[in-house]
Each structure stands twice: as structure tokens, then as C-alpha cells.
Amino acid sequence: MVVLVTEKLDPATSSTCQIIELPVSRRPDSATSEIEGFEVLAPIARGGMGGVYLGSDRRSGEKVALKLLDPRYARSEDIVARLFAEERISAAVHHDNLLEVRGCGYTTANIPYLVLEYLDGENLGELAERGRMEIDAIIGICTQIGHGLEALHAAGIVHCDVKPDNIFVLYEDGYGGWPRVKVIDYGVSQFVSEIVPNEATIAGTPACMAPEQWLGAPCTKSDVYGFGCMMFELLTGDSVFAGSLPEMMLAHTRNHPPRASWLRSDCPTELERLILRMLAKDPGLRPTMTEVVDQLAELLGHRLEIAKTG
């Protein structure tokens, strides 16, 4: 669930906020599915804003993914703008660990859509739900995620919604022999230069939102916090904080996070310390994404070396 808040929140009060949980979209009808230059073949995934479909480029025959907005939201200026902003963000940065958005437009039925590179695999959330992941696999996969987020930050972009469901695991080798991954879904991402502190729309997934993000002041360190929440969840199977929306808001802004080793005894001390630094309430106390990547790579290299000699 992604929340959008239309008024400034005060963690000290019980301020209400507008929660938008868009219903699951349906396969487009014949009129909606008419996209110039492409053929819609089959549904791939469904989400709140719309659906993703397997498509084919009529000229080259290449497979693509087509992200169509649900028709009921086609007249919402804010939602359409968020969809098309994904193409603008993708055009600003290219990296092997970031999803490529290749174009956007309207169908013959005036439904907004994006053309995405086709990815063969599954999202990290689905993979993690099948069972506890190995420590080395988590570190290898997260190192790649960090590289992708590092590239976004270097381009002046905050993802704002780092979570397992927004990481795609491909059926091909990546860093250290672990599956290659892509950071996906730029639906609530923002350019740092366009963020007006304390006036920005509060958007993200409550379980992974940094304290400053709840107050409408996201920054690149907000992604570091969300990334720390995600790593904690991959390690333990639990969210850092849970509960109702107000309870999570208060916990993220006030409460000390639990230690991963409390729920997983084989969690490396170095990894636990890194996650706790990433979950600092003060963004200035968190490491940069580059520092996170460097520590993850160093930790994985050390563990692999021990495995070889042991």
C-alpha cells in the first residue's frame, strides 16, 4: 500500500491523512489495448494504479512490458503525472540495476501507458515469501540494489519507495554469481531539486518510510532508511515496525528499531551494525548509499574468502 497525504502530519498528534489504496486493475478491453506500434499479448502483473502486460514491438518483434493506467484514473491529473514522471526519471539515469522506461503515451482509448524493458523473473517480495534467504544471497542482492540506488542519487533522484516488491530478481547471474536485480517503479520518485521541504506530497509505503519522509521532506538518505527497513525484513521476515498507520508513523519517528539478531541469530554483527546506522532517525547520522554499497561488498568478499579457506 502506498499512502498519499494531503496535509502536513504532526507525529505528536493523531492527524488524519488521506490513504489511497487503488483497487487491482483489470485486463484492458479491446479499445484500451490498441497501442500504436505495439501489441498487447498477456497480463504480467496487476497493481493499484493499473496493470503490466506483455507486449510485442510490431516492427522488431521484441518483447516489452506495457504499463497501462487503470481507465478509472485516466482523468486524474496527479496520477497521470506520476505515471509519466517515471519516463522522465528513467531518461535521467541509466544503470544495469535500474529498470529502463523506454517511452510513454496514450492508447486509442486515451489511456496513459508506459513502455518498459521486459524483465524475466519475479519480484523480491515474492521470492522472500517462499522461505528465509541465505545471508550471502541477501548481501549479494542488496549490493546490486545499492548500486542502482546510488546511481539514482548521483542523478539527483530520490526513489521514495524502496521495498522488496519494488525490486525485480532476474533469471540471470549478477554480482558475485547471485541473480541480477533491477530497482523498479518510479511512481513516487522525485528529483531532489524539485522537492520543497515540508511541502512535498507525503508518499511511500508506511513500513519503509523514513521519519523525514512522513513530514514531507524526503532526501536521498530517506532511501537509505527504506533500504535498511528492507534488509531487516529480508533477514528476519518481519517489518522493523508494524501496526496501524498512526502507530507506524509514531514508531518510525520516535522508537528505536529492534536488532536483527534478536530474530535471526546468524545475522553478522557487521551487517546488523550497518542496518542500525541506516535506520538512524537523523538523516545526517545515516551512511550514504555509496558507503552502504562499499560495506556490503566488503562484507560479502570477506565471507566468501572465509568460505573458501574454511
Question: Can you characterise this structure?
Answer:
There is one protein chain. The protein has 310 residues and is of the alpha+beta class. It has 2 domains: 23-117, 2-Layer Sandwich (Phosphorylase Kinase, domain 1), CATH 3.30.200; 121-309, Orthogonal Bundle (Transferase(Phosphotransferase), domain 1). Helix content is 34%, strand content 20%. The chain has 8 helices and 12 strands. The chain has helices at residues 77-92, 124-129, 135-154, 211-214, 220-236, 245-254, 269-278, 289-309, and strands at residues 3-5, 38-46, 50-57, 63-69, 101-106, 112-117, 121-123, 157-158, 167-173, 179-183, 190-191, 202-204. Strands 2-3-4-6-5 form a 5-stranded antiparallel β-sheet, with helices on one face. Strands 7-9-10 form a 3-stranded antiparallel β-sheet. A hairpin with a 5-residue loop joins strand 3 and strand 4. Helix 3 runs antiparallel to helix 5, helix 3 (135-154) packs antiparallel against helix 8 (289-309) and helix 7 (269-278) packs antiparallel against helix 8 (289-309). The termini are far apart. 43% of the residues are buried.
Q: Provide the CATH architecture of the largest domain.
A: Orthogonal Bundle
Q: So, the CATH homologous superfamily of the largest domain?
A: Transferase(Phosphotransferase) domain 1
Helical residue percent band = 25-40%
What does the overall shape look like? globular
Order of helices and strands: EEEEHEEEHHEEEEEHHHHH
Rg over C-alpha atoms, rounded to the nearest angstrom? 20 Å
Strand order of the largest sheet: 2-3-4-6-5
Give me the CATH fold name of the largest domain.
Transferase(Phosphotransferase), domain 1
Roughly how many Å apart are the termini? 44 Å
Largest sheet: 5 strands, antiparallel
Average pLDDT number: 88
Runs in which pLDDT lies below 50 for 5 or more consecutive residues are 4-32
Kindly state the number of beta strands: 12
Number of domains: 2
Task: Specify the structural class.
Answer: alpha+beta
Tell me the number of helical segments per DSSP (H or I, 4 or more residues long). Answer: 8
